[in-house]
Write a structure and sequence with these properties.
- This protein has twelve helices and no strands.
Length: about 325
């Protein structure tokens, strides 16, 4: 039923079925590499992940590369980013797993094409997915659970169709004011409105969508991970990212930040330098987070700004920790 629902969902959102062919090719490439990695071929994992990344960049048509290398016919890529995350996750886990296991094509497609998480997440690990999908005793679905999920769907619909639309209207008004020949003070106020309203619009739209899909999945006896935890109550930039799109942050932490930090620590023996290695890893990780959000050069700048903001925040924490000592810094952080 889940696979049928996912196929119907793809059919409804894709303009033409033939436009799904490149995405199907990407899925088959990922599964072929997964089969090779499962056989224990050590070089296959690194080369396979590189091939998946290259195929993803190629299909997404990142404008940093010459236009001539891309496919020049319309095809469907909505949801490809989240399929990419799942495929890389499977390849890394297959390489690192102590117990070798074979994943059938059916389980692979169920996981990668799960319609509840296809378009905008949340990003779920395979073990979490399999825990509910392939168990003999799926999660309980009683009247109280059904009622709470319908309540969450209503809240999500309100966020997306009322609150987000209202904020989007205010955002558009502020943007129009910036383009008009108005006094500088009014333009500054309009810019301030834009800076404040746009993140709230993104939160209402995105978290509302996530509320809906988490509730729908739970009604199908699938438990999806939470993706937001009151991000605007965060005490610093780093905490904000730990509470905003949490599954994305967790994925990049597991597959970019941690491996990069381990690799650098192995090569730099100085204990005094290790905190600064973390700063480098934070910059690279959040630079890639920014670049992932879009395929144009503007997102290179967004990645640089995001990485720089996180790096400055981390350097500030290191400075405070060295100035106040560990106990003093923990006491200060506890009062934030």
């Amino acid at each position: 039923m889940l696979f049928l629902a996912s196929v119907v969902f793809l059919h409804l959102i894709a303009p033409k079925s033939v436009q799904l062919v490149p995405m199907i090719g990407f899925l088959l490439l990922g599964y072929a590499i997964l089969l090779v990695v499962e056989r224990g071929w050590s070089m296959a994992s690194a080369l396979g992940i590189a091939a998946v990344i290259a195929a993803f960049v190629w299909l997404k048509k990142y404008t940093f590369f010459p236009d001539g290398v891309f496919l020049h016919f319309p095809y469907f890529t909505l949801g490809l980013s989240y399929i990419f995350f799942r495929v890389v996750h499977l390849l890394v886990e297959a390489r690192d797993s102590q117990t070798k296991r074979h994943m059938g094509l059916g389980a692979y497609l169920l996981y990668t094409l799960n319609f509840t998480t296809l378009v905008s997440g949340p990003i779920q690990t395979y073990d979490e997915f399999a825990r509910d999908q392939f168990t003999a005793e799926p999660p309980l679905l009683d009247l109280a659970t059904i009622g709470s999920q319908f309540e969450r769907i209503v809240i999500g619909l309100f966020k997306v169709n009322v609150l987000a639309l209202l904020l989007d209207g205010l955002r558009n008004d502020a943007y129009v004011q910036l383009t008009q020949p108005l006094p500088p003070i009014l333009k500054i106020f309009a810019a301030f409105q834009l800076v404040v309203i746009y993140p709230l619009f993104l939160y209402a739209n995105f978290s509302g969508y996530i509320d809906i899909v988490i509730a729908l999945a739970r009604l199908m006896r699938l438990r999806l991970p939470e993706n937001f935890d009151r991000p605007f109550s965060a005490s610093c930039v780093m905490d904000f990212w730990n509470q905003w799109h949490m599954t994305l942050s967790s994925w990049f932490k597991s597959y970019v930040y941690n491996p990069l930090l381990i690799a650098l620590v192995r090569r730099v023996s100085s204990v005094a330098m290790q905190p600064f290695l973390g700063v480098i890893c934070f910059f690279v990780t959040f630079f890639l987070v920014g670049v992932w959000h879009g395929r144009t050069s503007e997102f290179l700048v967004f990645g640089l700004l995001t990485g720089a903001g996180i790096s400055v925040n981390k350097l500030w924490q290191i400075g405070l920790s060295r100035t106040l000592g560990r106990k003093g810094y923990k006491a200060l952080a506890g009062n934030a």
